Amino acid sequence: MKINLKSIAAAVVIGTAIAGSALAQSAPASSINELLGRLRSDVREASAENQQRLQEFRSERNRQTSLLAGARQTLAGLERQADSLEEQFNANQVRIDELAEELRQAQGEFGELFGVARQTAGEFGSLIEGSLASAQHPGRADALLELSNSRVLPTRAELDEIWRGITAEMIYQADIAAFDGTVADLSCSGDYSVVRVGVFVSYAVCGGTATYARWAIPDGQIGGGSYSLAALGSQPPGPLRAAAVALYNAEPGEIVSGPVDPSSGQLLLVYREIPDLQQRIEQGGLVGRIILGLLAVSVAFGLFRLLMLILESMAVAGQKRRSTPSRGNSLGRVMLAYESVKDHNEEVIELKLDEAILRETPKLEFGLNFLKLAAGIAPLLGLLGTVTGMIKTFTQITIFGTGDPRTMAGGISEALITTVLGLISAIPLLFLHSFAASYSRGVQQTLEEQAAGIVARHAEERAGGAS
Predict the structure, then answer these.
(1) Is 459 in contact with 345 (CB distance < 8 Å)?
(2) Which UniProt keywords apply (predicted)?
(3) Domain boundary among 229, 253, 272
């Protein structure tokens, strides 16, 4: 059976037109003629639209064909140009080699001499560029670095720059100078001066405080000429900073001690690896925090009890000078206990006074056992932290071996820090317990002495009255 493609296409077009007409016209046709008329109108519109699309497609195809032909012509021209440049490059390279050979022959033995001069200029140029003196005198190494990269014979003036730069560097090594410079990462609200001690150490003085700085290439930057002064992240301890300020404030000709880093800043960088107090405490782990918590609570309680005992001792001393008893101190309460039984015999009075003293003793000794217990527990907790830290260390050795000591540093640090914290906690607690116990015993002895005196006076009065 022969299939007529044109008929199928027409049917598709008619079906599409009917569907479009059905969607476009909401009102139904009133008769067959009206429906046929709508169908013919839709077919004509669809045919015109298809013809327009076909025309646009052909126009776009022709334009794309033209652009493709133009691009191929451009590519061919660029390829010819590249071949020409490659030939020219090869010819220039051959000419350069010929001229280099002629230059080598013309230089003779001087070529090796000037080669050594360029090498020396490059080495000293890099040394001078990284020298701390370049922070005060920037650009000193430019001439030497330019000479090291030169491919022509150096002049006499360029050769003189080598020994002049070396001589200047030797002079700067023995020079101490203060100059206006810029130090990155420096917290200073006002003006500051930069002090250079030879080529070994530099620091900025601001508001009577010295901040050490380093002359180096900042992190993330590569290449010559990018050196700058930047404050050290971890500053040296107070004595070194105080010595730096003293050197800055010294009068001309005055001999003072000042900081010198013979490694040109490498020793100062070691302070970055030294943990501060907070980091030390964190190394102690959970046991270290428990020890510090115990220390804080015990010291606060111990100071409170010591203050109360001092005030009680002062009140008892004041009561000894007064005959009128007061309930505000322990001696006054003992005297009031005597007043309540002073008409009885000596045995009753003595028992009553002993009872009053025994009633005051717990108040005086309150908290002393806790301080003694805390002073004994703190070293034990430190020993516990030592054991747990060594367990961590041996566990890491079992897993990772002993190749890298850093893997064992955490456990060893915990072991040592907890021991130190335990001892540091026990020492002040022992002092507090000793002082508090001393005041407590002093007040108790005073009460016993006064009670014995009261009994003796009462007996004398009874004996005198009987006679």
Answers:
(1) no
(2) Cell membrane, Coiled coil, Membrane, Protein transport, Signal, Transmembrane, Transmembrane helix, Transport
(3) 272
Per-residue pLDDT band for 424 (boundaries 50, 70, 90) equals very high
| 346-370 b/e (C-beta count within 10 Å ≥ 16 → b) | eeebbebbeebbeebeeebbebbeb
| Nearest partner of 130 among 235, 271, 31, 226, judged by Cα | 226
Global pTM?
0.55
> Are 75 and 197 contained in the same domain?
no
Burial class (CB in 10 A: 0-12, 13-18, 19+), 335: buried
User: How do 228-231 and 209-216 pair as beta strands?
Assistant: antiparallel
Tokens of residue 37, six digits: 């008329």
pLDDT computed for residue 221 by the predictor: 57
Report yes or no on 92 lying in a domain. Answer: no
- Are residue 306 and residue 438 in the same domain, yes or no? yes
Flag whether 206 is in a domain.
yes
The Cα 226–Cα 232 span in angstroms is 17
pLDDT higher for 294 or 407? 294
* DSSP code for 268: G
In terms of domains, do 165 and 184 share one?
no
Q: Is residue 105 part of a domain?
A: no
Closest CA to 224 of 126, 329, 347: 126
Residues 6+ apart with CB under 8 A from 326: 319, 332
CB atoms within 10 A of CB 394: 12
Q: How far apart are CA 463 and CA 467, in angstroms?
A: 6
Give residue-wise pLDDT tens across range 381-401. Answer: 999 989 988 888 888 888 877
* Residue 451 belongs to some domain of the structure: yes
Whole domain around residue 307: which residue ranges? 283-466
